[in-house]
Design brief:
It contains ten helices and eleven strands. It binds 2-acetamido-2-deoxy-6-O-sulfo-beta-D-glucopyranose.
Length: 322
């Protein structure tokens, strides 16, 4: 090869490399590779699908019903506001982290269930943020923190089953299954149940405000207690990170339900940074056979030991060995 040919070949290789790098860059930076066209409910649909249900103490209140149209309509970006504040008007929060508006009758009672272990810094941010966020929604809620108080691998789904059992004993008709590292960004993402189970965090910053796959059903989910019971809750068998939410999704489909989402402008969340959890090496295998166990693995096979229940000023702390 003479010098001229060498230079020519070199230039072609250069261009090819440049082209390849450009495509890799575009692939990584743009959200096309995500499920950008998932089905969602628009602002007009939201009030059609919300299920109004409250606990007895709220239903007995002699007050005009709260109006939620302004909250959903305004849907402001709230992140910085609530993140920087302290928990304001603390005196309105009842022991155990329960709140309901005093000047109107809430139309939704929800139990926020948070599985937890060793994330103190995140918990502090979560509680501050969520109490400020939730009170502006004028709903009745209570935060249940379910802490895994043993050395076994973290079992997120089992902790949800425990929290759900306790929330139902406390009469809550609606469960919000909530990771401690996720914060809602838009004020109008009403923390209430819809007829169908709802995936609430479909526009997560970690995934560039899109969905990595349409059946993703983790992070934050709202589900009626009745439906949670019908599908036998979540599996108790997933130890470590991953798969339990996919199993949960399959349980919902197996009972002929489908899921819903609000439009992305309501469903924005930010994820607080943390070290990745240890993955569950067994999750693929569990998932392939999960349908055989839906009826025998879940709420009806739940065993655990409750070590303690502490009523803190901002949350109900349930310590369990699983
Ligand atoms: C999937 C996991 C889900 C998980 C989702 C998003 O791969 O449990 O990623 O995870 N499924 C399996 O591993 C089978 S995230 O990046 O948000 O931590 O929820």
């Amino acid at each position: 090869m003479n010098f001229k040919n060498f230079r020519k070949n070199y230039r072609i290789a250069d261009y090819a490399m440049f082209g390849l790098c450009t495509w890799i860059f575009i692939y990584c930076m743009l959200p096309w590779r995500f499920a950008s066209h998932y089905d969602f409910l628009t602002e007009e649909d939201i009030f059609e699908v919300l299920v109004e249900q409250v606990t007895n103490n709220i239903s007995l209140q002699q007050l005009p019903e709260c109006d939620y149209s302004a909250i959903v309509g305004e849907n402001a970006y709230t992140y910085l506001k609530h993140y920087q504040e302290k928990v304001l008007r603390n005196e309105e929060i009842l022991p155990g982290g329960e709140y309901y508006p005093r000047d109107c009758k809430a139309r939704f009672s929800v139990a926020i269930i948070v599985p937890y272990r060793q994330r103190e810094e995140q918990l502090h941010i979560f509680l501050t943020y969520m109490h400020n966020y939730l009170r502006q929604q004028r709903i009745h809620y209570r935060i249940f923190l379910v802490e895994q108080n043993d050395q076994l691998p973290f079992n997120r789904a089992k902790l949800f089953n425990i929290g759900a059992t306790i929330a139902v004993q406390n009469e809550f008709p609606c469960l919000i299954l909530h990771d401690v590292d996720l914060l809602p960004l838009n004020s109008g993402n009403l923390y209430a149940c819809t007829e169908k189970p709802r995936h609430m965090c479909s526009a997560l910053d970690k995934f560039r405000f899109n969905l990595p796959y349409t059946s993703l059903f983790g992070g934050v989910v709202a589900i009626r207690s009745e439906v949670y019971n019908i599908i036998n809750g979540m599996s108790n068998l997933y130890q470590g990170w991953g798969g339990e939410d996919d199993d949960f999704y399959e349980r919902i489909l197996a009972k002929q339900y489908s899921i819903c989402r609000f439009e992305p402008k309501y469903s924005g969340y930010t994820m607080l940074r943390h070290k990745p959890e240890t993955p569950n090496q067994n999750r693929g295998q569990l998932l392939t056979t999960s349908h055989l166990r839906f009826h025998i693995d879940g709420l009806n096979s739940l065993t655990f030991k409750e070590n303690e229940r502490r009523i803190h000023s901002l949350f109900t702390h349930i310590l369990v060995e699983i």
